[in-house]
Amino acid sequence: MAFKLPNLPYAHDALEPHIDAKTMGIHHGKHHAAYVSKVNAAIGGTTMGDKSIEDLCKEHSDNAAVRNNGGGHYNHTLFWSIMASNGGGVPSGALADAINAAFGSFDEFKTVFSNAAAARFGSGWAWLCKKTDGSVEVCSTANQDNPLMPDAGCDGVPILGLDVWEHAYYLNYQNRRPDYIQAFFNVINWNAVAKNFEG
Ligand code: MN
Q1: CA of 82 to the centre of ligand 1 (A)
Q2: Residue 146: left if φ>0, alpha if ψ -120 to 50, beta else—which one?
Q3: pLDDT per residue over 117-139, tens digit each?
Q4: CA–CA distance from 81 to each of 44, 45, 133, 187 (Å)?
Q5: CA of 124 to the centre of ligand 1 (A)
Q6: How far is the CA of 104 from the centre of ligand 1 (A)?
Q7: DSSP at 6
Q8: Rounded to an integer, what distance in angstroms lies between the CA atom of residue 80 and that of residue 14?
């Protein structure tokens, strides 16, 4: 079964002024679409053709085309889903408890996550992951790697991710990646992240 580019759950301009409509249009319609098309080309007609995107990341990240493009499809699908026009604020409930247990406070989590995103050299992602013991941790990966990949250097299942490739912010922020990271916190859909955490 070939993968399909998922529709965005909001309009291109829904995340303005934090993430601009032109960036969203190119990012989703060109970059994400290319990952979908290339992962389909990589798995078509092979024994990988029936795998879920999660299992491709877990089991076949030694295949460079699957790693880069399957990772790209998984990562961007998560990314779109954890943002919203009415996002921002702070988490509540069990997710808030887990963040406080791991970091001491939401503000300290924000600092750790922002530093991970800012310190990623070149292209990559920052993540908040849920580990098997139910705790959460922040990590970061290069390129289109993600924590599902056994050798990515991160544990757990991503419940929040931030794309820090230049294609995610350069039109609006140029070299000011820290400003983009700060703005991201205004569009995080904590209800969606909480569902990922509870799921
Ligand atoms: Mn991207």
Answers
A1: 14
A2: beta
A3: 999 999 999 999 999 999 999 99
A4: 26, 30, 24, 11
A5: 9
A6: 30
A7: P
A8: 11
